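2024-03-11 09:14:02 DEBUG pipeline.ingest accepted 1 chain
2024-03-11 09:14:02 DEBUG pipeline.ingest length=270
2024-03-11 09:14:03 DEBUG pipeline.predict start
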Amino acid sequence: MRFDVLTLFPEIFEGYLGQSLIKKAIDRGLIEIHRWNIRDWATDKRKSVDDKPYGGGPGMLIMCPPVFACVEAVQRAADPPGRLIMLTPQGQLLNQKLVERLAQEPRLLLLCGRYEGFDERIREGLKPLEISVGDFICNGGEVPAMLLIDAVSRLVPGVLGDETSHKYESFSESGLLEYPQYTRPREFRGMKVPEVLLTGNHQEIERWRREQSIARTLQRRRDLLERRDQRMSGAPAGDANAGDRVSGRTEPDAVDLRLDQQDTPDGRDD
């Protein structure tokens, strides 16, 4: 899979690309990440890429000419031209389902903004898929681009050591938060590993993990259970009765959510 990052600050990615799974994936040829400086397509002597907004207002906007020229040149640099994505707080919220769809694309072009954003005609003319990584503002699109690359690349075959590991993580196929996990030592400062994990009984371990996933999701992200129930029942989004069905589950594999406190120890967040 290929990522092309279009940015005014390509050097920001230096440390990120040289570490851990991303570096290994690049070295093994599983993913490609190319960086392009939008300023290289500016045409004046000062290499200007921004200007004041018409009508007044704070800050500067990234201009159309260098962005259009950069995007079109990068699209021609390899085949296929790829899916253009604009990182913007006004975009569609990035979640695991969207990540899974993006992972099916052979090539993604990530357009990173700066300053007060883009001239609106960049949206109109290039028609990017606009994506937000959350309801907050970053200094630019570079860190959101790293986040997107990180999430998508995990789903590229071969990037993870265990090809099934991503299926058990929070927001994965189950739609639940991940269950608590433990490693050695068996006891630390009075906190013990749950006995069921030491039994070797895989059926009981799987049942415990499912109980823990549901309990943790109910406690921390009830909205995920409501959406999951809506998908299973075919109820439309915003169904007022969806929450009632969460607490009154009648599925054959439903579990008792009234777990003892010792069965739900605090664990490491994802």
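2024-03-11 09:14:41 DEBUG pipeline.report Residues 242-270 have pLDDT under 50 and may be disordered.
2024-03-11 09:14:41 DEBUG pipeline.predict end
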